[in-house]
User: What shape does this take?
Amino acid sequence: MSTENAFKTGFIAVVGRPNVGKSTLINALIGSKISIVSRKAQTTRHRIHGVLTQDNHQYIFVDTPGFQTRHGGAMNRMMNRVVTQTLADVDVVVHVVEAGKWSEGDENVVPLLPTSKKCILVISKVDLLKSKNDIFEFTTKILSKFPYDAIVPLSAVKGVQLDILLKEIADRLPEGEPMFEEDAMTDRSVRFITSELIREKIFRLVGDELPYASTVQIEKWDETDEGVHINACVVVERESHKPILLGAKGMHMKRIATEARQDIREMLDKPVFLEIYIKVRKGWSEKESALRDLGYE
Ligand SMILES: Nc1nc2c(ncn2[C@@H]2O[C@H](COP(=O)(O)OP(=O)(O)OP(=O)(O)O)[C@@H](O)[C@H]2O)c(=O)[nH]1
Ligand SMILES: [Mg+2]
Assistant: This one.
C-alpha cells in the first residue's frame, strides 16, 4: 500500500544525441564530477551511475553515450547498445536536447524513447539563448514528435531549474528501498574515474581524431604514506598517434598529466604521483573482443 512518506528509489536514464550536455547535467545534479565532459561529441563511452539521495528519494541517474548513427564501427555499436539497453532497464527517461538546436541526431533518438515509461524532455543550455521567446516555438515543434510527460528548460552550467527537474523526476519514481548508501555518488570505482579523468584531458587537449583512437588503462595503483602512486597507460591505434599525443617536446603529454593529476588529487584528497605511458594496440576500437578486454561493455 502506498504511503505519503514512503521512500522512493529509481533509475533515470539520461539520453540524447552527442554533446547536448548529459554528463554536465548529471554532475550538476549530484554535485560532484563523476562523468567527464568535453566540447567534442561522444565523450562518454560507458554507462555511469550518478547517485543522489535526498528527502526520502534516491535518484540513480544513468549517464549514457551520445546516440548516433552517422559513424559505424565496433565502438559506436557498443555505445549505441549501452543506450538501448539502459532504456530497457530504467524507471524514468530524461531526453536531453539543446535549446534551439534540433537536428537529425535528435530525430534519431525519438524512436528509441519507450512509450510505456515516463519520459521527461530537458531543454539544456538555456543560458546560451539570446531570447527566451525562441524557446516556445522550439518546444512546440518537439512536442509534436513524442508524448513527453513533462518539459524542463534548464542550464546545468548556471544551475538554473535543476530543482524543477528533480521534482518532476521525484513525482515519477517508484516506491522502493535505497540501493546505495546515503552518501554514495557513483557505482564507479575511483580507479575508473581516474582513467576517465585522463581520457577527458586527451579529449580536451589533443587534436580531433586522436581522442577517438585512444583509451586509458590504470596499470598500477599503490597507496603509501606519501600518497597514491598511479601508472596509467594510454592505448592508441597506430604508431603515428604517439608523436601526436606527445606533442612537441612532450608538451601535450605533460599538460595532460598535470591537469589530470590535479583533478585526481582533488577527488582523492591526497598527494598523487602519476606516470603515463603510451602503448600501441592496432585496431583496438574496431574489434569487439579488444573492447571487452579494455573494459567496455
Ligand atoms: N553554456 C552551457 N554549456 C553547457 C551546458 N551544459 C553542457 N555544456 C557544454 O556542452 C559541452 C558538452 O557537454 P557534455 O556534458 O560533455 O555533453 P554530453 O551530452 O555528455 O556529450 P557526449 O558524452 O559526448 O554525448 C561541454 O562543452 C559543456 O561544457 C550548459 O548548461 N550551458
Ligand atoms: Mg557525456
In short: The chain has a mean pLDDT of 94. The CA atoms of residues 78 and 292 lie 10 Å apart. Residues 16, 18-24, 37-39, 41-44, 65-66, 124-125, 127-128, 155-157 surround guanosine-5'-triphosphate (ligand 1) (CB under 6 Å).
